[in-house]
Automatic annotation (TrEMBL):
It comes from Sphingomonas hylomeconis. Residues 617-680 form the Mechanosensitive ion channel MscS domain. Keywords: Cell membrane, Coiled coil, Membrane, Signal, Transmembrane, Transmembrane helix. SUPFAM superfamilies: Mechanosensitive channel protein MscS (YggB), C-terminal domain, Mechanosensitive channel protein MscS (YggB), transmembrane region, Sm-like ribonucleoproteins. Residues 1-22 form the signal peptide. It holds the Pfam family MS_channel_3rd. InterPro entries: DUF3772 (IPR022249), LSM_dom_sf (IPR010920), MS_channel_C (IPR049278), MscS-like_channel (IPR052702), MscS_beta-dom_sf (IPR023408), MscS_channel_2nd (IPR006685), MscS_channel_C_sf (IPR011066), MscS_channel_TM-2 (IPR011014). The keyword Membrane applies. This is DUF3772 domain-containing protein. The chain crosses the membrane at residues 198-220, 243-262, 282-301, 322-344, 356-374, 395-418, 424-445, 536-554, 574-592, 599-617. Residues 123-184 form the DUF3772 domain. Residues 27-54 form a coiled coil. It is found in: Cell membrane.
Length: 794
């Protein structure tokens, strides 16, 4: 427990130290930041006066987004400064009429008023600049959407018509001249820099590229696999780490190889300036192709079924793997061809023709994938068990949707909507790559989180043994962390998935929007941001930790030293726990900027709902507090509720748990124990009373009967000597004498067994004495109260 105290104290000190060390940013720095943001926004506004291509628009959007974030940050800091200045002005108090004010106070008041006015003006400037930046971003987004819509809606001559090919042939001579000029300029630059010696820099770059791409990539894979087999804990963690390592190696190796090759040409001064853009596009193409091949390969894991994450058999992985290589090659070719057309300045007809070729290649690849998938499903149609029917149905729906998209794209290509066809084809390919990456990352996040935070892991053992945290709590945190990571991955994937739609969904834009979100949003006058939420969570954890430490001291040290019984300790413990949790929650809400007045307003708004929908819960809660305070029923009491009788095992603020004789648990709402009749057999004391009633013939000697009964009672060990057993005659009825016999045992729980033993003995004795026993009619008993045996001599 001392370790828990030290941990909680350290967390509290960190929170308090962070708040104490947070220094206000100087006003001059904030003003400079705001001025720079305004300058950037004006520059973006002027740049939009001219027509810009898609790449330039992306850069301008990123600049406007960064300026908008800077203004939001500056406004937030200025508001903090304004609050400080206003607090100082409030501390000076109002000016008293007719009373001269001290010169120092007056000068300080004037200075603070001037500062407040300047800060207020700067805040208004910052808000205005933020609005302008938001408008510029919205304008760029609209422009990109319009260009995207125009691209997919533009119709040209069908590739099946002669008009399409006539336009291509008519533009071919000029396009060929442009290509020759592009090549000639590059060759001329190479010849100008050729010194006649061996270009060892270029050769070294080429050799290094080959070394990275082939033996280096294979060695890195094997090295990572060997390390995982020897050192990584758990099969799931090794499997996910191996997949991620394959993706990292498969993506970085082509990029590094391409960079080495291009850099070698640059060092040898054999890279023409006009070719630089094409080779840079080659680096991008190599990286994307490597990523595509690596991510699909990590999902399929052809030839390595034991390392495969996805539920795919070896035959399916073997047939789909060549298609993933073709997808990577087509993607790289598309990037290079688009860059080449841009650098060469290809004609509109040439661009349309290349787009048609790219669309046909993508459609052929998608069609091949669907055919392979259909053949695999047909082969396994009779082998599917009932457990895989839902998966097969979902796959069938996806396949049907892909066929419909493929047919729509083919139809668009045939009637001349080449832009639409290329978009659909590339969108399907992009969805495949992004979906594979998302599936792999989500599985890896789940495996890593649940393995690291398992109760048997190294970290789990440290948390359970050193910090006293339950093993189930450690595993629950791992599951929550896994869920949170997967939600973040899905959000990022959705932003990237929208990239082809021209909505500014690039990676930079996505993180820019996340950065804007990090600045916080205002909800009902309360600024909510990830930082604020994290601070609230930390304070809540610290508060609950303090409550837990206090409860450990209260239950383990203080309450055992008091004279309270178990029920009293339970009442004090429950009330203290609920009060502590409520205080921790209020502390956390206060750290979010939600004051007590807002909490009171919320409770008053909820009072109507509590009065109607939550009336029963509130009634049980109040009844539970009454039970804990008045204690008419305590833990360990033997009570009867209706026809059920049992021992009270637990009393909470909502319900009470009663263990019945058959060891089942009866859960009774507390309002039932307060508003209805409850028989508590142990409230006044722990004694239990045995009552036996019978009748004998009128001529039977009553003293003889009394002696037999007392002897039978005396033979039972559970019967107490004090109060002493007693035998009474209740009356005479229908020629019989009515007897009422009383005895006491130590506990009401012993009544049933002791009474049974006495009855067995009495039946045997009366049969031996030839005394005819009879039952006592219910109407034969007098209405008077049965006398207390403890006050009557036998």
């Amino acid at each position: 427990m001392n370790r828990v105290y030290r941990l909680i104290l350290a967390l509290a000190l960190l929170v308090l130290a962070g708040a104490a060390l947070a220094q206000a940013t100087p006003l001059t720095k904030i003003s400079a930041q705001l001025q720079q943001a305004e300058t950037d926004i004006r520059a973006v506004d002027r740049a939009l006066d001219e027509r810009r291509d898609a790449a330039a628009q992306k850069l301008l959007r990123a600049k406007a987004t960064a300026a908008q974030q800077a203004t939001a940050d500056a406004v937030r800091q200025l508001e903090e400064q304004q609050a400080l200045v206003q607090a100082r002005l409030t501390g000076l108090g109002p000016v008293t009429a007719g009373t001269p004010e001290d010169a120092v106070i007056r000068a300080q008041r004037t200075s603070l008023t001037q500062q407040a006015s300047a800060i207020d003006a700067a805040i208004k400037r910052g808000r205005l600049a933020g609005v302008e930046g938001q408008q510029l971003v919205a304008e760029i987004d609209r422009s990109q959407v319009e260009e995207f819509s125009q691209t997919i809606a533009t119709r040209v001559a069908s590739p099946l018509t002669p008009a399409f090919w006539r336009a291509v042939l008519a533009a071919a001579p000029r396009d060929l001249r442009r290509i020759r000029m592009f090549g000639a300029e590059g060759a001329a630059q190479i010849e100008a820099h050729w010194r006649g010696s061996l270009p060892w820099q270029a050769l070294l770059g080429a050799l290094l590229a080959l070394a990275i791409l082939f033996p280096g990539r294979v060695f890195a894979r094997r090295l990572g696999l060997r390390y995982l087999i020897e050192g990584a804990p758990g099969h799931r963690l090794r499997r996910s780490a191996n997949a991620l390592w394959r993706v990292a190696v498969g993506t970085l190796a082509p990029i590094l190889a391409a960079v080495a090759l291009v850099q070698g040409l640059r060092w040898a001064e054999l890279l023409p300036e006009r070719w630089s853009g094409l080779l840079d596009a080659g680096i991008v193409a190599a990286g994307f192709a490597g990523f595509t091949a690596a991510i699909t390969g990590a999902v399929l894991m052809r030839g390595q079924g034991s390392w495969r994450i996805a539920p795919i058999d070896d035959a399916t992985a073997g047939r789909l793997r060549p298609l993933s290589w073709l997808l990577a090659a087509v993607s790289a070719g598309t990037i290079l061809l688009t860059s080449f057309n841009t650098l060469v300045g290809a004609s509109r007809a040439a661009v349309v023709a290349t787009d048609a070729i790219e669309a046909v290649l993508h459609l052929l690849l998608i069609g091949a994938f669907l055919l392979v998938l259909g053949r695999l499903r047909a082969e396994r149609a009779g082998e599917d068990d009932a457990g895989s029917q839902s998966t097969s149905a979902g796959l069938g729906i996806v396949t049907l949707l892909l066929w419909l998209l493929l047919l729509a794209a083919v139809a668009g290509l045939l009637i001349g909507y080449i832009g639409f066809t290329l978009f659909v084809a590339q969108f399907i390919a992009w969805t495949t790559v992004l979906g594979s990456a998302l599936y792999l990352l989500m599985a890896a996040a789940d495996d890593i989180a649940t393995t690291v935070f398992a109760r048997t892991s190294t970290l789990g053992l440290v948390m359970t043994r050193a910090l006293g945290i339950r093993g189930s709590a450690v595993e629950q945190f791992g599951l929550l962390l896994s869920g949170a990571l997967r939600i973040v991955l899905v959000v990022i994937a959705l932003g990237l998935w929208m990239t082809p739609f021209g909505t500014g969904g690039t990676i930079g834009t996505l993180f820019g929007r996340l950065g804007t979100l990090a600045q916080g949003i205002d909800i009902g006058g309360v600024a909510i941001s990830p930082g604020t939420i994290l601070r609230g969570i930390v304070i809540l954890v610290v508060g609950l930790g303090l409550v837990r430490a206090f409860m450990g001291w209260l239950e383990g040290r203080y309450l055992p030293a008091t004279d309270l019984d178990g029920s009293g300790r339970n009442s004090v413990s429950l009330i203290a726990r609920y009060v502590g949790v409520a205080l921790a929650a209020i502390w956390a809400l206060a750290s979010l900027g939600i004051g007590v007045e807002r909490i009171a307003l919320l409770l008053s708004a909820l009072s109507v709902g509590i009065g109607f929908g939550l009336q029963a819960i509130t009634q049980n809660f109040v009844s539970g507090l009454i039970l804990l305070a008045e204690r008419p029923i305590k833990i360990g009491d033997l009570i009867r509720v209706g026809t059920d009788e049992g021992d009270v095992k637990r009393i909470s603020v909502r319900s009470t748990e009663i263990e019945l004789a058959d060891h089942s648990t009866l859960i009774v709402p507390n309002s039932e124990l307060i508003t209805k009749t409850v028989l508590n057999k142990t409230l006044g004391g722990n004694l239990g009373r045995i009552q036996i009633q019978f009748s004998v013939p009128l001529l039977t000697d009553p003293q003889r009967v009394r002696r037999i009964v007392l002897d039978a009672i005396a033979e039972e060990r559970a019967i107490l000597d004090e109060p002493a057993p007693a035998v009474f005659i209740d009356g005479l009825s229908d020629g019989r004498v009515l007897f009422n016999c009383l005895a006491h045992v130590a506990s009401p729980r012993d009544v049933y067994k002791a009474r049974s033993n006495i009855l067995m003995t009495l039946l045997t004795r009366f049969r031996d004495e030839r005394i005819a026993l009879g039952t006592v009619p219910a109407d034969a008993l007098p209405p008077a109260v049965v006398p207390d045996a403890s006050r009557t001599a036998p």
